[in-house]
Amino acid sequence: MINDAVRNATATDPDLEAFNEMYRRYFPRLFAYIYARVSNVHLTEDLVADVFERAYAKADTLRSKEALSTWLFTIARNAIISHSRKHSRETIVDPDVMRELSPATTSVENDVLAREEQSDVARLVREFPQREQDIISLKFDAELTNQQIAQIMDLSEPNVRVIIFRTLRKLRQLMLAERDRDA
Predict the structure, then answer these.
(1) Are residues 80 and 119 in the same domain?
(2) Domain-ending residue, one of 63, 95, 127
């Protein structure tokens, strides 16, 4: 459906231009959010494409331009949930991308330590209830505001703030406990 619409559109089609602008603006944040949830580059690319295809096909259902970000991340969240239901027992981690996402380091040892810490944080977050995982991912991977997260998750903004605070406190406590246990 999207291919037909793109094929029939001209380069100056305002709808296509608006879609291209939306894609350029939101692709990196949607990719980061979805990747944080599924940990696989190829699957992330497929799900992001799915999100934009759905957004293009359902553009007429968007109530206002101000709600675009929330609407896109709601579509993304639903795509992730749908995929998870279909493939609930599969977990695939792409080590090449984890290497690319690690911060620049001055030595191999620092690089290995940074990757281990990222892996530990991701592992601990995956143990939290799904709602907490979603909120943390929307906040830090998708870089959404608490208000946007509240709209996506159908919660109040103060509730989102409290959940983020408590989840980060719990994560910090778990990390400290693991370090103490390993020491």
Answers:
(1) no
(2) 95
